Amino acid sequence: MTTILGVAEAVLYVSDLARARQFYVDVLGLAVSADFGDACFLQTGQHSTIILFDLVALEKRVSVIPAHGAHGRGHIALAIPSAELDVWRERLIAHGVPIEHEQTWSQGTHSIYFRDPDDNSLELIEASHYPLVWQRLNA
Amino acid sequence: MTTILGVAEAVLYVSDLARARQFYVDVLGLAVSADFGDACFLQTGQHSTIILFDLVALEKRVSVIPAHGAHGRGHIALAIPSAELDVWRERLIAHGVPIEHEQTWSQGTHSIYFRDPDDNSLELIEASHYPLVWQRLNA
Prior knowledge:
2 copies of one chain form a homodimer.
Chain A: E1 6-14, H1 17-26, E2 31-35, E3 39-44, E4 48-54, H2 55-60, E5 69-73, E6 75-80, H3 85-94, E7 101-104, E8 110-115, E9 121-126, H4 129-137
Parallel strand pairs in A: 1-4, 6-9
Antiparallel strand pairs in A: 2-3, 3-4, 7-8, 8-9
């Protein structure tokens, strides 16, 4: 018996870690659980985290942890309560963050897309979305 | 009131989507919830998903969904039950997947690192790890 319970860590690469950290703390209200100077851990709910890596520092890093790093624009979707869609949109606008796109999925759930300071694509999606996918998969 | 409940989608970029899909289905036992030819959705528990994107196809894609894509080696950690650490290690070995590294964290939790066919860094981490981080953050 082997089980995957969920995504524990999702990663984005950034060019200015202090700027990125400030964005995720101020705009998304995330708490920093660790900051090693070249990597900043932002807790996303009880069971997962985002890790922001300074891409230049990462490429010079000597560590027992297996190496990784990618150039370009990453993507992460974060789950939010459906009841908070409107307040999340207002919060982004209040912080001067442009809403790039909004999408309603076939499941009836809704997403809001915007960018972080490194042009990574961020999405806020109703938390009910993947449980609905899961139900269909296991029907 | 704005809340982030967790990571809903984490992304990896691959050069051969069919090969990558087979790895994630066979080695990790994940179920495919959608395959669009240039993107394959693999359900990871009830609340999250991994999306594998064909990087070459993604760069040619015309879509209303905001663009992204990165070259290099990504990283995702997946939560597993602590009781399954040994069977997961055996499963990887049985599939001929080399264990690149194992790590015990200061929380007492443990991770197993390996690579997907595109050299992305994958990690299996005890599901108790981030709840322990969360407890400390909220103490």
